[in-house]
Amino acid sequence: MSEIIISTRVRLARNLKDYPFPCRLDAQGREKVVEKVRDTLINGASAIAGDFRFIRMSELDPQQSVSLVEKHLVSPEFISDTEGRALLLSKDETISIMLNEEDHIRLQVIKQGFSLEEAYDLADKIDTLLDERLEFAFDERLGYLTQCPTNLGTGMRASVMLHLPALEKSKVISRISGNLSKLGLIIRGAHGEGTEPKGAMYQLSNQITLGISEKAAIENLKNIANQLVLQEEQARERICSSIDVRDTIARSLGILRTALVISHDEALKLLSNVRLGVTAGQIQDVSISQIDELMTAVEPATLSVTLGKSLAPHERDVERANLLRTKLA
């Protein structure tokens, strides 16, 4: 299953009862929201208080901010305007809490593999901890009140990250996408709304939050994800026996091990091919975990942050190739 489902995410949107939504808050109001949540989680008596670090987004340079997006720890919208925004991030980076994004609180839990129940349980525990000291905006009929009406109700968005190279090569993703929308789910690029899939990475998530419980939404997502996994497995059986596909996989690994210059998009495409080759048993000396780590490490901002220096586009392409050659030697 981990060969196809890479990670699981559960996100909860919450707002404080006595404060306008962030889009209507002035600088002083935003700071009050930040301090209230920070004091509740970090300065309180909770067992997890020491697990978090507090980050003011205005104090990060652009590369550090973009790297957080590349790692799926914050949203692209969150870094578009950093004034009055802050992040509470667990040391292992599995929990991130965005403050004053579209809503006052965007609590996110990421788990490796197919771990919907585990991710939800952890998010629910932190949500309960915050709710004990913070009064959330809630309506008996509408549920949790959020700035965007599409998040009303549970305020929960759950998603799984899938590697679907065989379905992509079979050109059936668009048909699958149309069918999923009828079931209240959406499939899109790895970075969510408005992003194109790269490296055959797709995010499957629920769209309906009103009139359905969290557990029902998770069960629905789980069932559909299992069906997608089955379809991908069947498609892999069909295509991986092809000499042309096997040749593409072998050439991809050869390029990654020898190239002196490589772009971001090419790196993700080649890594995706190699990942398929590893799961098909064609490649024996590379692990899935290696490939998954490299897919994040080759991201432009993350690469610059790792090296500790700003890089021009061509310099990034050279350093990316150096990294890939070293790790896959």
Short note summarizing the structure:
The chain is an alpha+beta fold and 329 residues long. It has helices at residues 27-41, 62-70, 76-80, 116-131, 165-169, 173-181, 214-239, 243-258, 264-279, 288-297, 300-307, 313-327, and strands spanning 5-14, 52-56, 86-90, 95-99, 105-112, 138-139, 143-144, 156-163, 185-189, 201-206.
Quick tags:
17% strand; Creatine Kinase, Chain A, domain 2; 12 helices
> Which CATH C-level class of the largest domain is it?
Alpha Beta
Q: What is the N-to-C order of secondary-structure elements (H for helix, E for strand)?
A: EHEHHEEEHEEEHHEEHHHHHH
Structural category is alpha+beta
Q: Helical segment tally?
A: 12
Count of beta strands = 10
CATH architecture of the largest domain: 2-Layer Sandwich
Instruction: Assess the beta-strand content as a share of residues.
Output: 15-25%
Give the end-to-end Cα distance, rounded to a whole number of Å.
27 Å
Coarse morphology:
globular
Number of domain modules: 2
Examine the coordinates and then state which fold CATH places here, giving the name of the CATH topology of the largest domain: Creatine Kinase, Chain A, domain 2
What do we call the CATH homologous superfamily of the largest domain?
A: Glutamine synthetase/guanido kinase, catalytic domain
What's the pLDDT, averaged over the residues?
Answer: 94
| Radius of gyration computed on alpha carbons | 21 Å
